[in-house]
Amino acid sequence: MRSLFLALLDRENPRGHPLLAALLYAWCPAAARWWLAGADPVLAYDPVWSALTDRAQGLTLFDVLKSHGLENLKDAVKTYIAEVEVFRRLHPALTAPETLPFFPGRLTPENQFNLTDPVRTKFGGDWKNLFRYVRTWVFTLEDWQRKLEVDAGSVIFEAVRLALPARAMRKNIYLPAWRWREKEKDREALGLLGDGEHVDQLLLSVVRSASPVGAAWLDTPEMYTLDGARGLLDIADVRLGKDAGQDLATRLGKLAETGPWPPLPALRRAPQCNDCGFRALCLNGSGRLTPQALAFETLAVSSTQITLEI
Ligand code: SF4
Questions:
Q1: Domain check: are 135 and 155 in the same one?
Q2: Cβ(160) – ligand 1 distance below 6 Å
Q3: What are φ and ψ of residue 223, in 5° steps?
Q4: Cβ(29) – ligand 1 distance below 6 Å
Q5: Closest ligand 1 atom to the C-alpha of 28?
């Protein structure tokens, strides 16, 4: 969950804050353990988050390509966009058909040649990330806005830093998210990117009481979960009331302190481990659980281990 990992790296969020520890423990007990033991998550490049960040800053796609030294890819990117548009018209019943294996659009080997370094440094070393970045910018955001029924010409799309209240503490924690504002309609929508289309219920419950840092809500915001891979957007189905959410957070915060911290997602080979910032601590290069991940009854992890594994 990108937003949660970014919250861990936000130096205004104290390590060990019970609410953040509880949110992390709910997502994965082992992740809470690594963080409490002093490890910082190591985040891989995320083309979806990166494209949304750049677009929310008011940049244009081709300005970004130019700033990355990829201006000679402009025609190839235009061709890719045109191919996706055609493919979508051919398959109107499918969601994001360009993500399916039979989509023919690809960057030619000639375009890839000599562009290895910019892609390695700016797009996480993977050509597919360039396509994911462009697709998010051009199509995914438009898919979401169509479902929101906002006027793309007048709506403001921006990054928002949320202050999440913790019942037991005066100190809020901060979490990044996305929002759309339609000033003329006093309408506001808050979007949370999940693991696929799933956002943890505890997080949804706490975010419901959150306020934005800076510009206040125009009105009570609508809350949505976003799937960056397929362009899905759904009304957040919050199944924990505010008080129940805070009760649960208090209890999970205590568990995060005392453990145990089993690496449950790794044990069931859950996809969330693929994007986890603590993956190197739980799984070795062959995908086997590390001895320290299996010693999940103890919090103490030497800094040597953390440094070596990361
Ligand atoms: S790699 Fe998997 S088990 Fe380990 S902390 Fe991350 S999500 Fe949890």
A1: no
A2: no
A3: -125, 130
A4: no
A5: 8
